[in-house]
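Obj.: predict assembly geometry.
Materials: sequence records (below).
Method: joint structure prediction, all chains together.
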Amino acid sequence: QKEVEQDPGPLSVPEGAIVSLNCTYSNSAFQYFMWYRQYSRKGPELLMYTYSSGNKEDGRFTAQVDKSSKYISLFIRDSQPSDSATYLCAMTPTGGGNKLTFGTGTQLKVEL
Amino acid sequence: GAVVSQHPSWVICKSGTSVKIECRSLDFQATTMFWYRQFPKQSLMLMATSNEGSKATYEQGVEKDKFLINHASLTLSTLTVTSAHPEDSSFYICSATSSNQPQHFGDGTRLSIL
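Observations (raw structure tokens):
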């Protein structure tokens, strides 16, 4: 069993839909959680960075962490075609210069 | 947000040559830089962790004599693929971090060995 599980998709939604992306993990030591967006042939771009459990909102994006269930989510409201990309969850026990454990990434396509 | 620049973005070279990829943190001092390799439709595979002024720590299965990493300053790390062969063709990505900050990634280098 992988430390971090993420549905690879592809996930296809109509423009304007609310998108829910999720990851589950098995290592209870993870404390810092990140969501990255990666366009084709580009490096990952940091979207959200959260510590421990709770919610964090930034514009159309909301990140949720439920440590009791070992489950994290990224919600995208009013999805746009420009949101079409691969979304990677990542996590680490401590911040800073520590290795990340990544999910496999979910490919999202937002259609007109 | 933090900016990490990676150069070149794409390189094609003949088998047997060495290729150097640069990774720069433009607006912060990166105490730690990471080098990843990514195959199509797969997640990132960590190759090595590099701390400024010390030797890189390589992941299991990564040949340190093949992939030379230098982190000479707080803003620059380089990855040199020595005597590159077609099987080294891949997408290489660096990231940089400091203190308790998350990793910020460069835009990657597409390496094609003929």
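Conclusions so far: Chain B touches chain A at residues 1, 4, 6, 31-32, 34, 42-44, 46, 49, 51, 91, 93, 95, 97-108, 110 (CB under 8 Å).
To do: check interface contacts against the pulldown list.
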